[in-house]
Write a structure and sequence with these properties.
Length: about 90
C-alpha cells in the first residue's frame, strides 16, 4: 500500500487534494493511505516516528518548518528522491 502525505497550511487546499486522491482511489482501485499535515514540523515528526512516505505533497511556505527544509531532511535519510516543483498562485488569500 502506498503512503501519501499532504502538507500545506491551506486547509481548503488540503481538503481538495484529499478529495481528489479519494476519487483516484475509487476510479483506479489503487490502495493507499493519506495523511494530512498543516505544517512541516508535524510532518517531520511523523516521518521520524513512522518512517517515510512514498509520495509527499509539500507547500513551500509554512510556519514552524517550511517545505524546503522538510524536503532537505527527507533527502538526507533516503537513497532515492524524485523532486517536482509546481507553483500555484491565488489572489484570493
Amino acid at each position: 500500500m502506498l503512503k501519501i502525505a499532504v502538507c500545506d497550511d491551506d486547509r481548503l487546499l488540503t481538503g481538495e487534494i484529499d478529495s481528489q486522491l479519494q476519487k483516484i482511489r475509487e476510479k483506479t482501485g489503487i490502495s493507499f493511505e493519506t495523511d494530512i499535515f498543516f505544517d512541516g514540523e508535524t510532518l517531520w515528526k511523523a516521518i521520524e516516528q513512522n518512517g517515510s512516505y512514498d509520495v509527499v505533497y509539500l507547500d513551500i511556505e509554512m510556519k514552524n518548518m517550511d517545505g524546503i527544509t522538510v524536503a532537505r531532511k527527507m533527502t538526507a535519510i533516503t537513497n532515492s528522491c524524485l523532486k517536482s516543483n509546481h507553483c500555484a498562485s491565488s489572489t484570493n488569500r
